[in-house]
Amino acid sequence: MCKLLQQDRQRIFVSPLTLSVLSGKPVLSDMISSENTWNNHIELGIWADLFLIAPLSAHYSFLHSLRAPAKNLLQAVYLSARCPVFIATAMDHDMYLHPATKQNLEIVRQRGQTIIGPTHGELASGLIGEGRMEEPEQIFERVVAHFSANKPLAGKSIIVTAGPTREAIDPVRFITNHSSGKMGIAIANSLVEMGAEVKLIAGPVQEKIPTGLIHIPVISADDMLQACIQHFPSANAAIMTAAVADYRPSSVSEKKSGKSRMMIYNYR
């Protein structure tokens, strides 16, 4: 009964609903969800690029579980993971220094898994000492550094085109489409994260342009063509996702055209 009450308190303190709302993602905590569907731990373990456990407490049944058969969803995913595993420890100073804890952590480390922390500071017990979990910002930097250490596209230059083009009819009107440029921008951002030098040749878009790339804004299809011709010789690859306009006027009026004249334009 006491154990059940303790579990209920833990769920109320930081409920799955709270984490789901804050992250915008579903929170999986049991082998079988509340909808009576199975949470596939094998698929989760294969899916992940990196598995981070934070915080990892010194509670014997939890820390020791990293050396034992799976008893819950977290342990099952851990044992199924093919990706690197990072573990951020968090415990009281004396618990961290206990030989049993040191032994368990050493076995985990020998498996090639990365132990983050702990650091020195104020603990949940009110004491001061080594055992405090690293700050989330520091943990995040370790994760970023891990992916930055081996970037497969480092030294490569890639062109990406994105968004629509605008083909002028006169100083006021133009032909275009509703392309947002989201796909090209997302591809460009992924290439940057993989270490490439990216030149994003983009038509008029409202999406935020990521940092870390070279943004070359263009308006018309001819502008985009000339930019591609200029930069392609120095590129290793080009990914063309722009939604170039299908038509353009054969001539562009220097002043705003009347409604009657708009009907007799030839397009090519």
Structure explained in plain terms:
With 268 residues, the chain is α/β, with parallel strands linked by helices. The chain has 2 domains: 22-148, Rossmann fold, CATH 3.40.50.1950; 157-262, Rossmann fold (3-Layer(aba) Sandwich). The chain has a 4-stranded parallel β-sheet, sandwiched between helices. A 3-stranded parallel β-sheet has the order 1-2-3, sandwiched between helices. Strands 4-5 form a two-stranded antiparallel sheet. The N and C termini lie far apart (79 Å). The longest helix is centred in the middle third of the chain and has 13 residues, at 136-148. Helix 3 (41-47) packs across helix 5 (73-80). The chain has helices spanning 2-13, 16-23, 41-47, 60-63, 73-80, 93-97, 99-110, 136-148, 182-193, 221-231, 259-262, and strands spanning 51-56, 85-89, 114-116, 119-122, 128-132, 157-162, 167-168, 174-175, 197-202, 214-217, 237-240. The chain is built from 11 helices and 11 strands. A hairpin with a 5-residue loop joins strand 7 and strand 8. It is 36% helix and 18% strand. Residues 1-9 and 263-268 have low confidence and may be disordered.
